[in-house]
């Protein structure tokens, strides 16, 4: 089985687990309705990121996202893209700066 097929199996497993969790949440997280733990299938349990590092070697991290990459190689957010998102980000940064300024002036 190639990496692409293994990734699809992994994504399907997580989708089933997510659906089971949502079903449990719909019942108010009742202990008797708790979904059973289903471990990853053996064919995907040892998947690694495998992105090429700056040293030229494959990444060996096992904590990968559904896209098959770790948080260092494609799992994290790239930031705001739209003008509205960038403005919202800038406003949050300004609020943070103001709080920092107040904290240093009082303390």
Helix and strand pattern: HH
- Distance between the first and last residues' Cα: 61 Å
Proportion of strand residues: under 5%
Helical percent range?
Answer: 40-55%
Counted up, domains total 2
Low-confidence stretches: none
User: In total, how many beta strands?
Assistant: 0
Average pLDDT reading: 89
Alpha carbon gyration radius? 21 Å
Sheet with the most strands? none
Shape: extended
Query: Treating each run of at least 4 consecutive H or I residues as one helix, how many helices?
Result: 2
What structural category do the secondary elements indicate? Answer: mainly alpha
In short:
The chain has two helices and no strands. By secondary structure, it is an all-alpha fold.
What does this structure look like?
The protein is mainly alpha-helical. The chain has two domains: 3-78, no CATH class; 79-106. 45% of the residues lie in helices and 0% in strands. It has helices at residues 3-26, 83-106. The protein is extended, with a radius of gyration of 21 Å. The relative contact order is 0.10.
């Amino acid at each position: 089985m190639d990496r692409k097929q293994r990734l699809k199996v992994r994504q399907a497993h997580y989708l089933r687990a997510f659906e089971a969790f949502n079903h449990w949440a719909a019942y108010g997280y009742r202990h008797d309705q708790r979904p059973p733990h289903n471990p990853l299938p053996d064919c995907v349990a040892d998947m690694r990121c495998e992105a090429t590092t700056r040293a030229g070697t494959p990444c060996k991290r096992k904590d990968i996202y559904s896209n098959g990459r770790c948080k260092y190689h494609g799992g994290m957010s790239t930031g705001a893209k739209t003008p509205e998102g960038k403005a919202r980000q800038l406003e949050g940064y300004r609020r943070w700066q103001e709080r920092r300024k107040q904290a240093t002036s009082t303390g």
